[in-house]
From TrEMBL:
The lineage of its organism: Eukaryota, Viridiplantae, Chlorophyta, core chlorophytes, Trebouxiophyceae. It comes from Coccomyxa viridis. Residues 23-169 form the MoaB/Mog domain. Gene3D superfamilies: MoaB/Mog-like domain. GO terms for biological process: Mo-molybdopterin cofactor biosynthetic process. Its EC number is 2.10.1.1. This is molybdopterin molybdotransferase. Keywords: ATP-binding, Molybdenum cofactor biosynthesis, Nucleotide-binding, Transferase. Pathway: Cofactor biosynthesis; molybdopterin biosynthesis. One of its GO terms (molecular function) is molybdopterin molybdotransferase activity. It comes from the Eukaryota. CDD domains: MogA_MoaB. Pfam families: MoCF_biosynth.
């Protein structure tokens, strides 16, 4: 499934940040079959447009809840397309076909459980069923993979808050320096990781 190409890149050339590549992966049987339009992937892309000041481009896919396909797509986004961050949406609940966390763990070298813990804590402020979420996050090479909720409202409730630590994580993985718009999400970095100007001195 494709969305208009202008929505797949953003940021500004005068940012102190580096160009970055993101992956957005919607995992849904019905959306992948066209039974309904995917709104979750575009919600993530809209967040990038609002929050990321660095220049960026994104690869966006909508696939069914099939674990082998999820795993192969995550590998492709990390290894072939060079995404420093891959954000998934969907497939994190207790239903039999919800296998996104298992696929994520299978392709990751190391897990980052704190992201799942923080997202559930955020969601529990809004709905008691947040305890049913099995969202997780992990690292594959120099890529961070994060599982987000499946609904646009829940996506924005969580990513707007949890993203504050993501630029530092990516930087520590020797990935690009991400500059954010502070009014949307203020990236938290130790003082030694803060960049005052672009690498080329501009």
């Amino acid at each position: 499934m494709e969305i208009p190409s202008p929505a797949l890149h953003g940021g500004t050339k005068d940012s102190v940040g580096d160009p970055a590549t993101f992956g957005v992966l919607t995992i849904s049987d019905r959306a992948s079959k066209g039974i309904y339009d995917d709104e979750s992937g575009p919600a993530i892309l809209n967040f990038f447009h609002e929050a990321i000041r660095s220049e960026w481009q994104a690869f966006y896919r909508v696939i069914p809840d099939e674990r082998p396909l999820i795993e192969s797509t995550l590998k492709q986004m990390c290894d072939e397309e060079g995404c420093c961050l891959v954000v998934t949406t969907g497939g994190t609940g207790p239903a039999p076909r919800d296998v996104t966390p298992e696929a994520t763990e299978a392709v990751c070298d190391r897990m980052m459980p704190g992201y799942g813990e923080q997202m559930r804590a955020i969601s529990l402020k809004h709905v008691p069923t947040a305890v049913l979420s099995r969202q997780t996050a992990g690292l594959r090479g120099k890529s961070l993979i994060m599982n987000l909720p499946g609904k646009p409202k829940a996506i924005r409730e969580t990513i707007d808050e949890v993203f504050a630590s993501v630029p530092t994580c990516i930087q520590l993985l020797e990935g690009p320096y991400l500059e954010t718009h502070d009014a949307v999400v203020k990236a938290f970095r130790p003082a030694g990781l803060v960049r005052a100007c672009r690498k080329d001195g501009a």
